[in-house]
């Protein structure tokens, strides 16, 4: 149930929430909040206006771009640029980083944003929850100089804030700055987000596992063994299987109801499908801040030093014990302890 605290008040009410200038965080998140409302409005009209389907081009990942992918991408890039607070953006829909020199054209802004403007694109036309994922970093290149790729290839540990917007039964904005995770629900009638999910903590002893089992035959043996373990009639198992096919929705459910969500590597996808910079890192930060764990099956996602802005990474995230169990099966199958 939503409280009467709005996102704006919440931001101003927690001065220590942000290691840099708090009003800058406010301006950053306000820009994201605004762009999210623009996208939410458009999504809610999907089917009534010509916003579903593809536009006939593919992105750097070789995926067909949906009209809403492009709409969301432009909405976020324009809003962040107009707010004059970021010096660069990496987006799933753009091959190269986008340099933003700022209104005085002197590269004085401090933050870079990595984003997946529309997550769960395959679910757009079938009216299932989709989302926007974002991560925010303080630049590493000197202020006053053009943004560099190194500003984006920082490990997830360096995120100063991260979150997502979910466009589902309601529109929600969930974020962290390293002081816990809070969720806000949009009241579309007045366009205001209210605190509805304070201090989110992943429940212990979850009983849901979430993976696209359609790829089972191509998964590594350790992952197969873990899936069989989840399905065995023993102790508190079999676990329930849930899979939406939108990472935002599957991770959000995992944060609220517990369990584990994973997208492993497979013979066809040696590094899995999900992108480290703008899918794995922001959601790993949220999962950890909610008391869970997020790894690639071997190491903490947030410790990984990216080498490419669009690189993929296997992802195992959720309740700590379940993630460790999955890693144990992977290690055993690899011949380790
Ligand atoms: O169809 P699959 O192979 O299960 O993949 C689903 C996954 O792909 C994604 O849709 C990839 O994200 P995009 O839609 O942003 O490209 C994830 O949201 C989701 O978890
Ligand atoms: Mg995505
Ligand atoms: Mg996407």
What does this entry look like structurally?
The protein is α+β, with helices and mostly antiparallel strands and 337 residues long. The chain has 2 domains: 7-197, Fructose-1,6-Bisphosphatase, Chain A, domain 1; 208-332, 3-Layer(aba) Sandwich (D-Maltodextrin-Binding Protein, domain 2). It is built from 7 helices and 15 strands. It has helices at residues 7-13, 22-43, 67-82, 221-231, 247-257, 276-289, 320-333, and strands at residues 54-58, 64-66, 86-91, 98-99, 111-119, 130-138, 159-167, 171-176, 181-187, 192-197, 208-210, 240-241, 260-263, 293-295, 315-318. The strands form 3 sheets. An 8-stranded mixed sheet has the order 4-3-5-6-7-8-9-10, with helices on both faces. Strands 12-11-13-15-14 form a 5-stranded mixed sheet, sandwiched between helices. Strands 1-2 form a two-stranded antiparallel ribbon. Helix 2 (22-43) packs antiparallel against helix 3 (67-82) and helix 4 (221-231) crosses helix 7 (320-333). The mean pLDDT is 93. Bound molecules: 1,6-di-O-phosphono-beta-D-fructofuranose and magnesium ion (2 copies). This is Fructose-1,6-bisphosphatase class 1.
- Bin the helical content: 25-40%
Report the count of strand segments.
Answer: 15
The 3D shape can be described as: globular
Work out the helix count: 7
Cofactor: Mg(2+)
Keywords: Carbohydrate metabolism, Cytoplasm, Hydrolase, Magnesium, Metal-binding
Enzyme class: hydrolase
Subunit structure: Homotetramer.
